[in-house]
């Protein structure tokens, strides 16, 4: 699903999705320090689980074990799909962590997460 390490139990229908909500997190570790300029996330489901709610934390090359809050996202949906594009400025990032929160119906169904940036 994602190239990262997920934490906590997730809602899973066993076939088509894994849902992320309160207490779930996903850490993406980068092969080398990168500058992140945008984060794009996509969620989709036939009901309000297409909403998105999460906090983004990053770890920098100088202290790779310490995560600091970068930004948050909250987008409601009655169903279908949602896209969130977050402009950010983070240089020398070695890991990005998403800490998920529940939406209107509990967990949300994320389909894709993209980090946009460059190698310095």
List the helices and strands and how they pair.
Elements: E1 5-7, E2 11-12, E3 18-20, E4 25-45, E5 52-60, E6 63-75, E7 80-100, E8 108-118
Antiparallel strand pairs: 1-4, 2-3, 3-8, 4-7, 4-8, 5-6, 5-7
Describe it.
It is a single chain. Strands 1, 2, 3, 4, 5, 6, 7 and 8 form an eight-stranded antiparallel sheet that branches. This protein has one domain (18-118): Galactose-binding domain-like (Jelly Rolls), CATH 2.60.120. It is an all-beta fold and 120 residues long. The protein contains no helices and eight strands. The chain starts with a strand and ends with a strand. The protein is elongated.
Largest sheet, strands/sense/barrel: 8 strands, antiparallel
Query: SSE order in H/E notation?
Result: EEEEEEEE
Assembly annotation? single chain
Q: How far is the N terminus from the C terminus?
A: 28 Å
User: What is the domain total for the residues?
Assistant: 1
Radius of gyration: 14 Å
CATH superfamily heading:
Galactose-binding domain-like
Descriptors:
mainly beta; elongated; 120 residues; disordered N terminus; Jelly Rolls; eight-stranded antiparallel sheet; 0% helix
Quick recap of the structure?
With 120 residues, the chain is mainly β. The chain has strands at residues 5-7, 11-12, 18-20, 25-45, 52-60, 63-75, 80-100, 108-118.
